[in-house]
Amino acid sequence: MSYDSSSSQQGLVLPTMTMQNQIHELAKTLPPPRKQNTACDACRSRKVKCNRFPGQDKHCLSKNYPCTHFVQQATSEKKRSSAIRRPRQLSSAGSTPTSPTTLKYASPPEKAAVLASPHITNGLHLPLMVRYGFYPPITLSTPTREVLSFIFAPPDNPNPNDKVAYSPGRPKFPYEAWGELASKLEDDNFRAEFALDLVEVFFQIVHTRLPLLNPAQFRNRLQLQGNSTDDKPLHPALVATVLAWGTKFSEHPLLVADRRRPGGQSLIAKTLIDRARDLAEALKVHRIPSPDHVVISLLIEPLQSQNPDDPNGFHGFWLTSATRHLLDLNINHKSVMATILDPESRGTMIFAWWMTCICDAYASAYYRRKPILDDDDYDIDFYVVDSVSAEMIDTHSQTPSPREQLEVFMLGYYRAAHSLARTVRQMSRQLWKPVTESDGIPYDNLIAFTTALVEWRDEFLTIVGVPTNFEGTWDFVSAVSSCASDATYHVIWIILFNALDDFGVKGTNSATHEQIDTAKRKIADEALHGALRIAGLAGVLTSNGYLRLDPAVMHVSCIQAGTLLARLGRPEVSNCIAGLDQYSHSYEEAGDQANEMRRSFTLARKGELELNHMANVTPRPVASPSAMVVDDHDIIGTNGTSNGFSSPESYMYGR
């Protein structure tokens, strides 16, 4: 290679003529440059050409989608910003100048819009509002009626492999996948009326178990009847979450038509749950601490799948978010809680804290993980919040509001629940760690756990559990609350039994084999008793149709108890299976869990399913299907409904 001397002196190295010819020949073999993709966001997400044929509108415009180019703009902005490189400033190494791109996308949380990501590559990762064809993007100041346009937007094309798809292939019209009446959602007034129905179902069913909202305030701020006020619109993710809950239990004709599919599942409910979660993520509910975000997170968590193996279940994610928010807001400090002057706000945060604290402990046992909170992470007293204000009372009901009932019950119930939560928290920290899995559970820990559980039973179970008789009238709230408290205690024995069966007992010099077998037999007896107890309670609730209206309060108990009974070949598992079948109307995975119990029961009766470390201390008798710990003769009437129980329909609709 030769160099031009004049160019060389200037620091430039030029190729020879031969090399230039080689480069020119190589360039001829390269493929032509890629054609610029000018499709709009909506057409790009649906993978169709954004062309205009003679005499026709563009594809997006013909489908009433906005012809926007946010993805293309974001890509161009990324290229432009990457092309500009600031030179190194060696003299000021400590300075970190702010990137122009950072400034462009920075905005205060209260004004933050759902912005397009500069790293978008395909339709699955399109901005939320673009993916659903909704623009402008939703912010915290978006009126609720506009939020409904997104929540009730037509569904994406159904997946032919989806077992709840309404029909295979491409829908004939946008709402076809949601049933024969779903096209009514195109009308703005119908969407508002449908939303109001779902809100009422939420307050009648879900709010009774999770009273985190003020019914009167929520209805006043909903602003769907054209009665505009100066109040700030409700948080869009909160509205979406409340409506998603309503679709699980509503008997609106639109949802009844949508459930006319194999399995009786509602595709509308499934879609609205996804959109509520999408809205919460887009508006950074999981990242920014605020009272609204605490409430939204706690309401989203039990909406998720209750199957531990479901990759889309997000087990504990939203509960963890709520826990972190409460800690960041210092709600765990008595001194900070006392500074909240508004009684309603203070009461909501107190209830949110105790719900989070207790659920964190129970979830650690259910899903085999260590709890987030420790006993010394808070100093809040167990006390009843201030008297309820007039506006908090639900004027649509003649009975005391759920919050009023809970405040009356709070001292006894939360003392009991917190005491059990502390025991469960200690169990989880010892059970769910690698050394226990490999070496076994220390004998001393087993004795400590069983002693603590027995002490709790003697002190609290008669107060918060199911009474020995059902005198008087039992409504939905009373029945499910007592049964859930009762079942929560008994399911802990089952969880301890399963851990012992999986891990065994760690060898120790402080206990003989006889003492170890005695401890194991005690846990096996309590676990079997607890499983039978839960099966009996599930049978009572199922016979009254209450599990169809239960927001997953008894779900985990039915799963744990039914699984153990199935493994033991006990026919009482039929109660748990029936309960899960009833749950499947609102929780899709419950039907699969019921089928798995049937399969396990069949294998156990054939002798093909055996226990591990607990096999030598667990009796395997064959009981009659009618054998239950709860005496059904005194509870269930001859017509299949329980004496003293009100029907779920009368509770739900006031009939």
Automatic annotation (TrEMBL):
One Pfam family named in its UniProt record: Fungal_trans
Record InterPro entries: Carb_Metab_Trans_Reg, XnlR_reg_dom, Zn2-C6_fun-type_DNA-bd_sf, Zn2Cys6_DnaBD
Keyword annotations of the record: Metal-binding, Nucleus
GO cellular component, one term: nucleus
Biased composition regions of type Low complexity, renumbered to the chain: 91-102
Ranges where the Zn(2)-C6 fungal-type domain occurs: 34-78
Disordered, as annotated region: 76-106
Example GO biological process: DNA-templated transcription
A GO molecular function held by the record: DNA binding
CDD domains named in the record: fungal_TF_MHR, GAL4
PANTHER family in the cross-refs: GLUCOSE TRANSPORT TRANSCRIPTION REGULATOR RGT1-RELATED-RELATED, TRANSCRIPTIONAL ACTIVATOR PROTEIN DAL81
UniProt protein name: Zn(2)-C6 fungal-type domain-containing protein
Organism, as annotated: Laccaria amethystina LaAM-08-1
